[in-house]
Amino acid sequence: MNSHPDYPNLPPLDAPLDILVVAPHPDDAELGMGGTISLLCTQGKKVGVLDLTNGEPTPYGSPEIRREETAIANQALGNPWRYNLGMRNRYLEPSIENRHRLAGLFRLTKPRWIFAPYWSDAHPDHVAATELVEAARFWSKLTKSDIPGEPFHPSRIFYYYCIHLKLVPQPAFIVDITQHWESKAASVNAYQSQFVTGRGSEALSFLERYREDAGFWGKAIGSRYGEPFASKEPIAFKDLGSLQ
């Protein structure tokens, strides 16, 4: 797959994606499942990250700064395929126009699995992103439409936790990211404008909180660090060999 007229500067992709992580803003994928992205990349999976907006404006950021930070973060994760869909930050909506655009991207990249933000959140962009992903997944299989690409239906949606509510998740599964915690930490730390600049000592407590969260989920599965995920549909196993 090469650049498409409806998607300027679309990075080349020589085969369909195994996994596409959809993030409302640059840094959401890193915060929610950076360790898992790193793990999947080392396992040789075709992983993509799709940022729906550029995340700006923010107090210490700019579109240029965020692009630079995203490139550094992506390198820390193992350099997965990555694209920004250019939707409007703070005004993200699951509109028909946005649904059409995202469905076309699904058709062009053909991911087997999609990861989206958890569906309940205080941040309107996160809620809109998940509703948009679910609708676009359905639309991407439609025939007799003007959506770019051939009809395609991603088989599963899973949900990562990058939430602004004080919730205690009840995950469907937890991924052991012990060997990939440092990659996640480096990817989050790349977003200096969001988590370091202007925060003073609060920056250290912010990063430490994510380490503690990962430790909590790791303890739940008998490992050092973990990342939790949700699913609206039952999860099937052909064997139980990977269960712990």
Q: Determine the structural class based on helices, strands and strand pairing.
A: alpha/beta
Low-confidence stretches: none
General shape: globular
N-end to C-end Cα span: 38 Å
Looking at CATH, the homologous superfamily is LmbE-like
Helix fraction?
A: 25-40%
How many separate domains make up the residues? 1
Overall pLDDT score: 95
Structural notes for this entry:
The chain has 244 residues and is of the alpha/beta class. It has one domain (19-230): Rossmann fold (3-Layer(aba) Sandwich). The chain has helices at 28-42, 63-77, 96-109, 124-139, 181-189, 192-195, 202-220, and strands at 19-23, 47-53, 81-87, 113-117, 156-160, 173-176, 226-230. Helix 1 (28-42) runs antiparallel to helix 5, helix 2 (63-77) packs antiparallel against helix 5 and helix 3 crosses helix 4.
Any key phrases for this structure?
244 residues; globular; 7-stranded mixed β-sheet; 7 strands; Rossmann fold; 7 helices; alpha/beta; single chain
Furnish the topology, listing elements before pairings.
Elements: E1 19-23, H1 28-42, E2 47-53, H2 63-77, E3 81-87, H3 96-109, E4 113-117, H4 124-139, E5 156-160, E6 173-176, H5 181-189, H6 192-195, H7 202-220, E7 226-230
Parallel strand pairs: 1-2, 1-4, 2-3, 4-5
Antiparallel strand pairs: 5-7, 6-7
Helix pairs in contact: 1-5, 2-5, 3-4
Report a brief summary of the structure.
With 244 residues, the protein is α/β, with parallel strands linked by helices.
